[in-house]
UniProtKB/TrEMBL annotation:
Leader peptide range in chain numbering: 1-22
UniProtKB keywords: Signal
Domain of life assignment: Bacteria
GO cellular component, as recorded: cell outer membrane
Pfam family, one: OMP_b-brl
Protein name as it appears in the record: Outer membrane protein beta-barrel domain-containing protein
Domain Outer membrane protein beta-barrel: 10-176
Subcellular location field: Cell outer membrane
């Protein structure tokens, strides 16, 4: 048997076994993926002391890799500007993070996020800043149902080049 035919036979056998196992389950299995949508008022602050508070939306897609660890991809963007006359700002942010967590009760977890991110911040006072930085935060998550949960957290998105972007978030998540 040639290597190509052997590889094809192995792939077909694997796919057939997976399909047979999926058909024997009555209930859908939790594969550890989840998605979140959050409202987050961002505080943009420049070294001169001016601040702007644009309203942002954050989207997260994550995968639990262990009961105490997850990996997340994050995207945050401004949905409403502050419209201050002296200092107005907006943010677009994306990145990847690890999420260590610990259960406080059966339905509540304390977690942290640490990751690498890329931010594009536009401010009337400080100009435009684009760059990579370490983002970090922590929060509390509680289950409403086995699939739906709520979350409150704090994130530091960017702190570099004289501009800082940080804020609290209120999230609603769904496990699938």
């Amino acid at each position: 048997m040639t290597p190509h035919r052997l590889l094809a036979a192995c792939i077909l056998t694997t796919l057939g076994t997976t399909a047979a196992q999926a058909q024997t389950s009555i209930y859908p299995s939790d594969v550890g993926y989840y998605g979140e949508v959050a409202y987050t008022p961002i505080e943009l602050k420049v070294d001169g002391g001016e601040t702007s508070n644009p309203q942002a939306m954050r989207l997260i897609v994550g995968k639990e890799i262990h009961k105490n660890w997850a990996v997340e991809a994050m995207y945050t963007t401004t949905v409403s500007k502050d419209n201050k006359t002296l200092f107005d700002g907006e943010i677009t942010h994306y990145g990847i993070a690890i999420k260590p967590k610990v259960a406080l009760t059966d339905s509540t977890e304390l977690f942290a996020r640490v990751g690498l991110s890329h931010s594009n911040i536009t401010a009337t006072t400080g100009g435009e800043r684009t760059g990579a930085d370490v983002s970090y935060g922590m929060g509390l998550q509680t289950k409403f149902t086995p699939a739906i949960y709520g979350q409150v957290d704090y994130m530091n998105y960017y702190h570099k080049d004289g501009i800082r972007a940080q804020g609290y978030g209120i999230s609603l998540g769904y496990r699938f």
